[in-house]
Design goal:
The chain is 25% helix and 29% strand. It has a single domain, classed as Fumarylacetoacetase-like, C-terminal domain (Fumarylacetoacetate hydrolase, domain 2, Alpha-Beta Complex), CATH 3.90.850. Strands 1, 2, 3, 5, 6, 7, 10 and 11 form an eight-stranded mixed beta sheet that branches. It contains seven helices and 13 strands. Bound molecules: 2-oxoadipic acid and magnesium ion. The site of magnesium ion has 9 residues, from β1, β5 and β6. Keywords: Lyase.
Length: 256
């Protein structure tokens, strides 16, 4: 049997991102299952590496009920982050470079020594050097931000850009810190790090386990986004977005 055209699908999704132009969902028609969707994601990463980008980390998706409900997919997923996706804290993004970007509040981990795949993270403070408030910009390449599980995996879990605030040592009570997402000084979303799998540390265990299944290993010095604590909000031109995480401080970006 001839399988789905992994390279062709990666090309279609990569071009949609490059041109900021939405495409129809494709997994059902192409017969793309979850394993093949991760193969598309790997091919999309290779496309970025071929043009000189560097792999700098990994992100989790749909680790909170609020996110699962917003997009109608209820499985934890993971994607790849490259240096070209990073926006400096307080920096700006041009919304015209995206299709229908949304911002969401996250916590980021700076990875240190990680266990072998299949091993649980024993001591979190050995595995994680520092923690930071973060903003993820997601931008599904599918029309109307509507997709199935394999569609969103193939689309590198809607990853588009990310901002990392100041790093702090792992604080006490990481499992339940207040999270705010503000747009133009107004609170748009309120949540807690507890929304992230009950404890964002669990997202790291899940990331090691899920990515390990596909031979992806995280490395010292990488960034890890644990997944949004609340639903995402549309990013409009001119907006100033700020994420506040209790004990960790803020991360912000401006949209032009
Ligand atoms: C999928 C990506 C989800 C998160 O933090 O839950 C994600 C999407 O919502 O388009 O990044
Ligand atoms: Mg996210």
């Amino acid at each position: 049997m001839i399988g789905p055209d992994i390279a062709g699908i990666a090309q279609t999704l990569g071009a949609a991102a490059d041109n900021a132009s939405a495409i129809p969902q494709l997994a059902a028609e192409a017969g793309l299952g979850v394993d093949a969707a991760y193969a598309v994601q790997a091919a999309l990463l290779q496309r970025r590496l071929d043009r000189g980008e560097r792999l700098v980390g990994l992100k989790m998706g749909l680790t909170s009920k609020a996110k699962m409900a917003q997009v109608g997919v209820d499985e934890v997923i993971w994607g790849r982050l490259t240096d070209a996706m990073r926006v400096p804290d307080g920096g700006s993004v041009d919304v015209a470079e995206f299709i229908h970007p949304r911002a969401e509040p996250e916590v980021a981990f700076l990875l240190d020594r990680l266990p072998e795949p299949g091993e649980p993270v024993g001591d979190f403070t050995d595995a994680v050097r520092a923690v930071a408030p973060a903003i993820e910009l997601i931008d599904s390449r599918y029309a109307n931000f509507t997709f199935s599980l394999p569609d969103v995996i193939a689309d590198n879990t809607s990853a588009a850009a990310f901002v990392i605030g100041p790093w702090s040592p792992v604080p006490d009570g990481l499992e339940n810190l207040g999270v705010l997402l503000e747009v133009d000084g107004r609170v748009a979303q309120v949540g807690s790090t507890a929304a992230i799998l009950g404890d964002p540390r669990r997202a790291l265990d899940e990331g090691i386990r899920l990515a390990g299944r596909y031979g992806a290993r995280m490395r010292e010095g990488w960034v890890f986004l644990a997944g949004a604590a609340t639903a995402a909000v549309p990013l409009r031109p001119g907006a100033h977005v700020r994420v506040v995480v209790e004990k960790l401080g803020t991360a912000s970006l401006r949209a032009s």
